[in-house]
# Entry
Amino acid sequence: MDDALIRALLAGTGLVLATAPLGCFVIWRRMAFFGDATAHAALLGVALALALSLPVGLGVLAVALVFALLLFRLTRGGEAPDTVLGVLSHGALALGLMAVALLPDAQVDLEALLFGDILDVGPRDVALVWAGSAGVLAVALWRWQGLVTASLNPDLARAAGLRPERDDAVLTLLLALTVALSLKLVGALLISALLILPAAAARAFARSPEAMAVLAAAAGAVSVAAGLALSVALGTPAGPSIIAAAAVLYALGRVVAR
# Structure
């Protein structure tokens, strides 16, 4: 294994520590398209960062957070979540691609933005992913009981003295941060799959919310390792190979569960 492959494995493993618990909440709350919508909006952050000569990661994070808060406010205002997600997702993707294309003298690899390039991560990227995932995981563990209760039954959460609206906002912000961390690794079009597939694979075997999160992390780590191995063996792009491995793992899990 060369250094690039080791860094890719470390970055992918660190990332699934954040995507595993959040993917469980995405499935429980039926928010499957949230990751796609936020990732599409993140392309606007790339264009903004390039236009202002700022770090790309900073622009992506800022736009992802603004998008997540906007989505949270619109859905709380009575708009249908699937309609809001569809409008914002496709609109943001189109605007982001147009903005990147119109930037003067900007050398942007659109394929890397859409599908990721995990084999191109450096030591700084690995450290950033692990730090961000550790922060996401820490907040998720801190608010775990409230997030689970609000996901299962908001009325029960209120009766228990909790504020499900606050937990909804926390989850939305954590998802936005995770999308920003994931963009370079798996790209805007594949982030949602990394959230959903490992958690869906773990669902059939879990007997508690905590067990599902742990199994999802294990499934995500296996998917990263298997996807990178496929990429090296077949010469395929690493990001799609990781998602393909996760899809196969989900299918195998369904067969075993039956």
